[in-house]
Amino acid sequence: MKSIKTLTLLIACAGFMTITTGFSQTKMVGGAPMYPSKDIVSNAVNSKDHTTLVAAVKAAGLVETLQGEGPFTVFAPTNSAFEKLPDGTVATLLKPENKAKLQGVLTYHVVAGKYNAKDLKKWIKKGDGMAELTTVNGDTLTAMMDKGMIMIKDGAGNVSTVTIADVNQSNGVIHVVDTVVLPSK
Question: Is the pLDDT of residue 86 over 90?
């Protein structure tokens, strides 16, 4: 009887540990686990859906920045998001002579601070359906909701949907998006 009580207690404790560790849940992105204990770049390099973004971050010289202390909120476009751009856009941006422009595009997807989906939804509600986010490049993005999904709109009116929210990192959070947003500057 004592061993049954011990087993019951262990099962109860294991269930509690699962609940409490859920706050730092490891999510799968691009077929790879995104560990909350790793930084943004260390996780992103393993996602097969973010190879274009990783190549762009490297070409722009932003690896050290995104491995830094942060915290950062990154709206991370997938490979298919980059494919939506006009033909030749990515190849042109990756050229060394366009490094500054590439940095501008990438830092337009980054907000200083760690803001999860709950924070964004709260700001959107408080802003009567819209919230302005100042990006690291100094331009603004507009966050809004559509059918329960967080949407991000750039200055030109391009809209991106957050497809995977709250991918926690040691130095911030990633929200996977389906469209590249472009700065006006």
Answer: yes
Is the pLDDT confidence value at 7 over 60?
Answer: no
Of 182, 77, 103, nearest in space to 140 by CA: 182
Q: In terms of DSSP H, where are the helices of the chain? A: 2-21, 40-44, 51-59, 63-66, 79-83, 89-93, 99-107, 117-126
Nearest to 110 by CA among 55, 53, 159, 158: 53
d(CA 40, CA 173): 8
List the structure tokens of 90.
């990515």
Residue type, 36: P
How, if at all, do strands 72-77 and 172-177 pair?
A: parallel
Q: Reduced to 3 DSSP states, what percent helix, strand and coil does the chain have, rounded to the nearest 5? A: 40, 25, 30
For the stretch 29-58, pLDDT in tens is 888 888 889 989 988 998 899 999 999 999
Dihedral over alpha carbons 95, 97, 100, 102 (to 10 degrees): -10
Residue-level length of the chain = 185
The answer to whether 136 touches 185, Cβ cutoff 8 Å, is: no
Could you give the CA distance from residue 169 to residue 36 in angstroms, rounded to a whole number?
Answer: 4
Question: Which DSSP symbol is given to 67?
Answer: T
Supply the pTM of this predicted model.
Answer: 0.85
